[in-house]
Design brief:
about 100 residues; alpha+beta; 3-stranded antiparallel sheet; 4 helices; elongated
């Protein structure tokens, strides 16, 4: 288990004021009730994330579609975005010299 999953397992969702919800499984082949729930959450495409207030209504909707979505708190979402930004950041170019080393 990596550190992010361990952190995710110990953070109580009920304490966070905002929830970041990402659709990670496809909509085709799901039940009509689940499709309607995802539509109400405004999740239409895979790998899209929406922010919703942490209310009992939203948590009940997420309970219905928990196998289709990933739920994150604000801190977890920001940490993941920062990790992705660092991964995609520009790096200095590698300078490789193919000339033979000078003899001493």
């Amino acid at each position: 288990m990596n550190a992010f999953k361990a952190y995710k397992a110990c953070v109580p969702i009920a304490w966070s004021p905002n929830l970041y919800i990402s659709l990670v499984r496809g909509i085709p082949g799901t039940r009509r009730l689940h499709r309607r729930t995802l539509e109400a959450l405004r999740l239409r495409k895979c790998n899209r994330t929406v922010m919703r207030w942490n209310t009992p209504t939203v948590r009940g909707m997420l309970q219905q579609v928990k196998r289709l979505v990933v739920i994150e708190t604000e801190e977890m979402y920001k940490a993941r975005r920062q990790k992705d930004a660092n991964h995609c950041a520009l790096r200095p170019p590698l300078v490789i010299s193919h000339l033979p080393a000078p003899a001493k």
